[in-house]
Amino acid sequence: MDHPSSTDSSLQMTSNLINDDKRTSADSLHKLVPMLSLCPLQFQNPDCITNDKEDNNPVLMPQIGFGTYKFKKDSGEAEEAVLQALSVGYRHIDTAFVYGGEKTELEVGRALQQAMSDKKSDHDASSSSIGGLKRSDIFVTTKQWRAYHGYEKTKQCLAKSLKRLQLDFVDLYLMHWPGPNPADVRASESEINMPELRAETWRAMEDLYLEGKCRAIGVSNCSIAHLESLKRYCKGKGGCRLWPPAINQIEVHPYNPQTELIQYCQKEGIAVQAYASLGGQDAGKKAWKALGGKLLEREEVQKIAQKHSLTNAQVLLQWAVLQGYGVIPKSSKMNHMVQNLEAVTMTTCLAPARQGDEKDDKETAKGRLDAADMELLKSLDLSQSKDETIRDRVRLCWVRDPLKMLDFE
């Protein structure tokens, strides 16, 4: 399998400096997006195998991707938004089998084909029209849906996704949830062994990786317990071969920083990709009230935004990026797409600025959060609240049934 070359096989990020005089124009923003290096699967575990044991070159993933969750079904919104995102500089598109009533992948596929055509569409003179990109220019992530757990179903799921996307392979394939739909579990006539079912799914993903159907495989919404269970199947006699997963895509934001889980992922060599960086879309009024208001509208966030002439969204995206996480914000407005992209390109290193460092102070003036800002946002952590109701509601994107599913080990 061909991977971009790199001499460092540990989890790291390569950073590009922004222009000292002014922010870059939108059409060249993609050149400034930092890259996350996804470890080759065999590197962390010498006992595991890949199709090339000598291959230490990681897959490079743009640290910011364009999210496609919650576009309206059959509306054409996802297709147009993806074209707009590519036109302003995004080179990473994140989607999933189930998004948009299982229709979003179709729209993403149409957008990708137009973007990779030889020329701009003749009938579209809008600024979102784009053409001439190569397949290697675009990083595509999709996810296996929880109704497709198990070996054969997982392979069927990716086959359907590739057909919708009109692609021969995806760059990253994720296990969307660590278990099936709880209703399916309750309706099952026989007891379901969750760790074994998850391992069967992972074995299918391993084979899809080795067959070249995906350049990297990872997980989403997995806890430490889920990962430890999968690790036992990989490092024991469970039949799995590849460890660690390239990435764990999880809900991460200042209200719920997932510190313990992220420390575990970093120890194992699993990259972290944050969704719901701006605070999530699924929380109701009661949840927001219990948490002290919407994260995007918190006084602390607004204070930092005013200090650096940033938008509130840019503040929250930088909070994640400066800690080395990937982000996948979604927007249907081109100006917001550009602002989100700029939030990432304005970060110039993994760590936040050090207080009292003259060089870092100059960098901060260009629009990057400093150590004091990061400390202020740290104060918003509600995941360790003594109030159990708050601890439960801090998971802004998960409704009750999926939460129950996370109890399966």
What does this structure look like?
- Keywords: NADP, Oxidoreductase.
- By secondary structure, the chain is of the alpha/beta class.
- The protein has one domain: Alpha-Beta Barrel (TIM Barrel), CATH 3.20.20.100.
- Helix content is about 40%, strand content about 10%.
- Strands 4-5-6-7-8-9-10-11 form an eight-stranded parallel β-sheet. The protein has a three-stranded antiparallel β-sheet with strand order 1-2-3, with no helix packed on it.
- Helix 4 (about 150-165) packs across helix 6.
- The longest helix has 17 residues, at about 195-210.
- The relative contact order is 0.13.
- Mean pLDDT is about 80; it is low at about 1-25, about 40-55, about 120-125 and about 350-355.
SSE inventory with pairings:
Elements: E1 13-14, E2 35-38, E3 59-62, E4 66-67, H1 77-88, E5 92-94, H2 99-102, H3 104-115, E6 139-144, H4 151-165, E7 172-175, H5 182-187, H6 194-210, E8 217-220, H7 224-235, E9 247-251, H8 259-268, E10 271-275, H9 285-291, H10 299-308, H11 312-321, E11 326-327, H12 334-345, H13 358-365, H14 371-378, H15 388-393, H16 400-405
Domain NADP-dependent oxidoreductase: 64-344
Protein name: NADP-dependent oxidoreductase domain-containing protein
GO molecular function: oxidoreductase activity, acting on the CH-OH group of donors, NAD or NADP as acceptor
